[in-house]
Amino acid sequence: MSARGHAFGIDIGGSGVKGGAVDLATGELVHERIKIATPQPSTPQAVADAVAKLVAQADWDGPVGITLPSVILDGVARTAANIDKAWVGTDARKLFSDTLDGREVTVLNDADAAGLAEDRYGAAKDFAGLVLLLTFGTGIGSALLYHGTLVANSELGHLEVGGMETEHRAAASIKDRDGLSFEQWAAEVSTVLIGLENLFWPKVFVAGGGISRDADQWIPLLTNRTQVIPAHLRNTAGIVGAAMAIDAGIAP
Ligand code: BGC
């Protein structure tokens, strides 16, 4: 099935392959989100097979937008964070399309997809100008949007701030690994945000990733100058952004 005004998005993460059809008028899923465990090892063909299973389960026969935790250029994965290293150099767009009977596919970075979704339907929908979304998870993902246009593959999780890559300083996984309190972790996040705001001067930061659910415990502790707001779409942002990308023909 594929319906007018609906597009299909799939978000590939370290633990789950999640997807669904999205109503592009509202940014909401039109049915329950479908989730399949990410195959281990998460090699390209194994993940593509999981994607095909998910699409079949949803009974969707139209084009599909898909995220990967990778830099994507012309459909090719150029990096692979938290997913099997065999992805580096893989033509992901071709692989997914071949596995889905030649249908149209677009592939984009996971944080870029979340940024598209939050910018249009979520936390940043009322902000004009530069929006910088950061996802705090195993690493730090980033999305830069200027008046709704995505500057793809920004990879600010790997920018050095204070002599350390931002994701090595302030990913949510660092809080868990080092047993940091919210106060201690928020100090590291502040260092990262101050470094980023001094370079990019965004109108607003959107904080995504699982830890954004606890936003009231750490956003008030931040000491940077730019407003920080928690993501609204939570665990559907990647799916919604992937659906937006295939609909709008965004193909980084
Ligand atoms: C990767 C990004 C990804 C982010 C979140 C980073 O380590 O380099 O491409 O968006 O993790 O998954």
From TrEMBL:
SUPFAM superfamilies named among the record's database cross-references: Actin-like ATPase domain (SSF53067)
Domain of life: Bacteria
Gene3D superfamilies (alphabetical): 3.30.420.40
Transmembrane segments: none
Listed Pfam families: ROK
Membership in a protein family: Belongs to the ROK (NagC/XylR) family.
Protein name per its UniProtKB record: ROK family protein
